[in-house]
TrEMBL record:
AMP-binding enzyme C-terminal domain ranges (all copies): 378-446
UniProt protein name: Long-chain-fatty-acid--CoA ligase
Record's keyword annotation contains Cytoplasm: no
EC number annotated for this UniProt entry: 6.2.1.3
Organism per entry: Luteimonas padinae
Membrane topology value: Peripheral membrane protein
Alphabetized UniProt keyword annotations: Ligase, Membrane
PANTHER family linked: LONG-CHAIN-FATTY-ACID--COA LIGASE
Keyword Membrane attached: yes
Annotated PROSITE patterns: AMP_BINDING (PS00455)
Record localization: Membrane
InterPro entries recorded: AMP-bd_C (IPR025110), AMP-bd_C_sf (IPR045851), AMP-binding_CS (IPR020845), AMP-dep_synth/lig_dom (IPR000873), ANL_N_sf (IPR042099), ATP-dep_AMP-bd_enzyme (IPR050237)
Length: 459
């Protein structure tokens, strides 16, 4: 019997089969980088750290080192604690999540003293420099136990909580392994992953935490950010690695001209991947770029090769049911059907076309347009490096105008607006349109609506 936390944060008891924390040969690697970590050593560290954790039901894992994040996440799960995954690691996001769970604690791999993001942070446990070890039996976790609560990014509103059980993570990881078919090496070899996304994000959790635990994959311990650092991390893999990244990082890699070692493939998610960028990356790095479609609510549910495919292919066991204002998702790893705001068109052979969101459809002065299409036209202007459009709240006349933040070095607002006027109806010209040095994207490239409104002075 183990503790389970429901959607409202109440703790109760649940029964169910218990699964091994991780499977594989004792010598197979779990993490690599400055030093490899074998499965047996990892399990010893998990058992050792479990005894050091405070007696609280919720843990907020802030570890930067992915190996240490893995150990801390596993130890918390074995202890019966739920790991909280905030939408970002900003102090505001941390405080908001902890306010919902006042009986939580934080753990990390840096000192709270001198780090403005976490100091002063009550109930903070810094992992020791040398992780403790303890022998014993294989740690097990009940399939019905809630081991994580992921919070949505807040890009369309307030972050929402999404509890995840160990059993659901096991089922979704099996689907993700199927989604990676053709990119990973033969079963006799351990696949190696380098991820630029943080483990606290659900995409990062799926691709860089659950794959090592449940898929027999080894992950690089670091989270490289700059192109030269990404190249160095990839070069440390004993086999051609899989790069797990975002469209923002991929664009920076392509634009940098940095040479990468041979890759097993590239996986991208968290934001729409332009077809042209996917094709450029495939040509530059000589491997397939596979885009994943999912959400914090559903985990990954579809894939496509964006350079040459528009339609998405559903993962095994996933079903979609179009609704007037979105789509219902059913899958083996979901206890109940999940409603997404995305509108889809079902196609033969388990495929679908993504048609945007109801909230993206605009109607101004009797004319209609799509927020996604308008953003695409804005990004197509020569000299525009990044841009975001947002529909403001109604003005005194009840009109919801558009506003835009644009990164375009060397251009002024009038030049961008004049270029955009050639491509869109005048009623959809953003007012205001502001040139900014950078957009307030989070670690995965998403743009929280509140941060964008603050940047535009429209909050």
């Amino acid at each position: 019997m183990s503790a389970v936390i429901d959607n409202h944060g109440r703790q109760h008891a649940a029964t169910g089969t218990a699964s091994a924390l991780v499977a594989g040969a004792p010598e197979r690697p779990v993490a690599f980088g400055s030093g490899g970590v074998a499965l047996q050593d990892f399990l010893d560290e998990v058992r050792g750290l479990t005894a050091l954790l405070p007696d609280r039901p919720f843990a907020l894992n802030l570890c930067e080192d992915r190996h240490r994040f893995l150990v801390a996440f596993a130890a918390a799960a074995v202890r019966g604690q739920v790991t909280l995954l905030p939408p970002s690691r900003t102090r505001a996001a941390i405080d908001e999540v902890r306010a919902r769970h006042p009986d939580s604690y934080c753990l990390g791999d840096v000192d709270a003293c001198g780090c403005e993001d976490i100091a002063p942070l009550p109930h903070y446990l810094r992992l020791p420099d040398v992780l403790p070890r303890a022998g014993g039996d294989m740690p097990r976790v009940a399939d019905a136990a809630v081991v994580a609560i992921g919070y949505t990014s807040g890009s369309t509103g307030a972050p929402k909580a999404n509890p995840k059980t160990w059993g659901s993570f096991a089922a979704s990881t099996a689907q993700n392994m199927a989604a990676l078919a053709g990119l990973l090496p033969a079963a006799s070899d351990t696949a190696h992953v380098v991820a630029t996304v943080p483990p606290q994000h659900m995409y990062g959790m799926e691709m860089s935490v659950l794959l090592p635990l449940l898929g027999g994959v080894a992950v690089h311990e670091a989270r490289p950010f700059f192109p030269v650092d990404i190249a160095a991390a990839l070069a440390s893999s004993p086999l051609p690695p899989l790069l797990v990244t975002t469209p923002v990082h991929l664009r920076a890699l392509v634009g940098s001209g940095v040479a990468l070692p041979p890759l097993a493939g590239i996986v991208a998610s968290t934001a729409p991947l332009p077809q042209a960028l996917a094709a450029e990356a495939e040509a530059a790095f000589g491997c397939e770029v596979r885009e994943m479609f999912g959400s914090t609510e559903t985990c990954i549910l579809a894939r496509r090769r964006t350079a040459c495919e528009e339609a998405w292919t559903l993962l095994p066991g996933v079903e979609l049911q179009p609704q007037p204002d979105g789509t219902l998702v059913r899958a083996a790893h979901l206890r109940d059907a999940v409603a997404l705001a995305d509108i889809v068109e079902l196609l033969p052979g388990g495929r679908f076309r993504l048609c945007g969101r109801q909230s993206d459809l605009l109607e101004i002065a009797g004319k209609r347009a799509s927020l996604g299409d308008l953003t695409h036209r804005l990004l197509a202007i020569p000299g525009v490096l990044d841009a975001a459009l947002v529909q403001l709240e109604p003005d005194a006349c009840g009109v919801r105008r558009l506003a835009a933040a644009v990164v375009a070095p060397g251009m002024d607002e009038a030049a961008v607006r004049d270029a955009l006027r050639q491509a869109v109806d005048p009623v959809f010209l953003p007012r205001p349109l502001r040139i900014v040095p950078a957009l307030p994207r989070n670690e995965t490239g998403k743009l929280p609506r509140r941060a964008l409104l603050d940047l535009l002075g429209a909050g």
